[in-house]
Structures are given as C-alpha cells and as structure tokens.
Specification:
This protein is an alpha+beta fold. Helix content is about 45%, strand content about 20%. It folds into two domains: about 10-75, Winged helix-like DNA-binding domain superfamily/Winged helix DNA-binding domain (Arc Repressor Mutant, subunit A), CATH 1.10.10.10; about 85-240, GAF domain (Beta-Lactamase, 2-Layer Sandwich). It is built from nine helices and eight strands.
Length: about 240
C-alpha cells in the first residue's frame, strides 16, 4: 500500500506565512506573523529571513512591516500564463465586454471558493463595477460559486431547487440589493467538468434578473463557444445530466 510523502514542515509554514498577506492586509509586522503562525518570534523571524533572501518577502525597516516580494509577482505571472483557459478566454471576454458594455469576469475554483483570474472592463458607463483580479468570491452566495457548486458533488450546499435551476439554465444570478450590484454567471466546461465561470457584473439597473433575458443567453452562448474550444461538446453535458 502506497503511503503519502511526509510534509516538510518548513515548506508548509513558509507557504502558510505567505498566505497571511491579503488585499486587505498587504503589510504585516513580525509580531502579527508570529501570532498567526503560532510559533516563537525567533522561528518566525527565521522563516521571514529565508523568504526575504529568495525575494518572496520584503521588509521595510522604517515601518517594521513585511509585504510580499517581487518574486511573488513573477511566479503569479508564470502561473497565469500556464492556465490555458485564460489565454483562450481573452478574445471572447473582450468581445463580450465591448458588445454588452459591461464588465466580464473569468473565475476558477481553487478548491474552496471561486477566484477571479481575468477581468475585461472597457465599459464607458458612468457607473460600473470594478472587480480585482485575485479576488476571492463567496462560495455559496456569489453567482460564480453557485455555478461551481451546482455542477459539483457539493451541490447539496445549495437550495435543491436553485441547484436544479442552475443546472437546467446554466445561469446563476446573485443580486446585492443594498449595494445595487448584480452578477450573472455561466459555466465553462472541459472534460465534463466545470473548470471556470464567465460572468457579467454590473448594476441592478443595467443587468436583468431573469435567466431567460437576452443578455443571459448571450453570455451563455459565449461560454459555450469557449467550452467547445476547450474540447467540450454539449452532448457530454446532456449525457452527464441523464446519468
């Protein structure tokens, strides 16, 4: 019986430390890192120094704070360039954003929730929604999260009727009435799996609330073409639904 290779604790902790930095908290002190890592100050300092030496962390002596280093940007760019779907989706998203005059967003599932990987925003509307690449979206309430869950073994996390409706229409809508924002998402398939979502994000005034609206159908059509380029055929979805 094969056994899993032991996890290198130093590597695990170093990766964990990098994960403490977020868009909301781009800078952290050694004390904050120590508290979150759950180690001694000396141990945290040792990890921080190692990460600084390879460019994954940088340190501002004036403020006493650490932030992600330039090497992280290089690695992120390399990772993004290796995701074939992002390269293929680009032209489709650009055309759709220009045609609809709305923001178009591509997201992938990171194992826990949707993460925005590309945003095309060439809208000339006076009011439009800004979405940042790298943003993590809500697992069960975002339109993108609903799509991923509906086509996964975790569909039970959604209301049964809503999950069935998303699978049937291939459209999920999330409306934030208080903020005046609406997102409409549709799946992108490859090898029978939902590997990404394409979404239109805008104001409630500009985006429809019904799955049968022309904008929703146009979004789904664009995603279907992209799925076909990835080697997916609609009959595979029909076979999956029937099984």
């Amino acid at each position: 019986m094969a056994t899993e290779a032991p996890i290198n604790q130093s590597v695990e902790r170093a990766v964990q430390m990098l994960g403490f930095f977020t868009r909301e908290e781009p800078e952290l002190t050694l004390a904050q890192l120590t508290e979150r890592l759950g180690t001694s100050r000396a141990t945290t300092h040792r990890y921080a120094m190692a990460l600084r030496r390879v460019g994954l962390l940088r340190y501002d002596a004036g403020s006493g704070r650490h932030s992600l280093g330039p090497r992280v940007v290089e690695l992120a760019a390399t990772a993004l360039s290796g995701l074939r779907i992002i390269r293929i989706a680009g032209p489709h998203m650009e055309r759709l954003a220009a045609e609809l005059n709305e923001t178009v967003v591509l997201s992938i599932w990171d194992g826990d929730s949707p993460v925005v990987m590309r945003v095309d925003d060439n809208t000339d509307r006076v009011v439009h929604i800004v979405v940042h690449t790298g943003s993590r979206l809500a697992r069960t309430t975002s339109a993108q999260g609903k799509v991923f869950l509906a086509f996964s073994p975790d569909a039970k996390e959604l209301d049964e009727k809503e999950a069935a409706r998303v699978r049937d229409t291939r459209i999920a809508i999330n409306t934030l009435n208080q903020d005046g924002i609406r997102a409409i998402a549709t799946p992108i398939f490859q090898d029978r799996d939902c590997v990404a979502t394409m979404a239109v994000v805008g104001t409630i005034a500009n985006l429809p609330a019904k799955e049968s609206a022309p904008l929703c159908l146009r979004l789904r059509e664009s995603a279907d073409v992209l799925s076909a380029e990835l080697g997916f055929h609609d009959r595979e979805l029909q076979e999956r639904s029937a099984s």
